[in-house]
Amino acid sequence: MDLLDYARTVFALIATLALIVGVAYAARRFGMLQPGGPGVKRMRVTETLLIDTRRRMVIVRVDDREHVMLLGPAGDLLVSDMAAKETPAPETPAGETPT
Questions:
Q1: Domain chopping of the chain, boundaries
Q2: What is this structure's pTM?
C-alpha cells in the first residue's frame, strides 16, 4: 500500500464516524430516540420532600394522576393516588403587571 491508499482509508474512516455521529445527533435532537414520539413526556416528579437521610417523599405526576410515594432503602410505598390538580398560574406581586 502506498501513501494514497492509507490517506483514502483514513478519510473513509473519518467520514464514516462523522456520519454515525451526525445521525445520532439528529435522532436525539428531533426526539426519535424517545418512546412515544418526539416531545411526549407522560411522567414527571412534581415535588420532593426529604424526610430523613434515608427516606424521601415524592409526588409523581403521570398523565392526569398524581401519586404520592415514600422512597427508602426498605422499599417504595405508594401513599396516595389521586386525580391531578391543574397547576395554578404564578401570582404577580401587587402593583406589577404580568409579562
A1: 1-38, 42-86
A2: 0.47
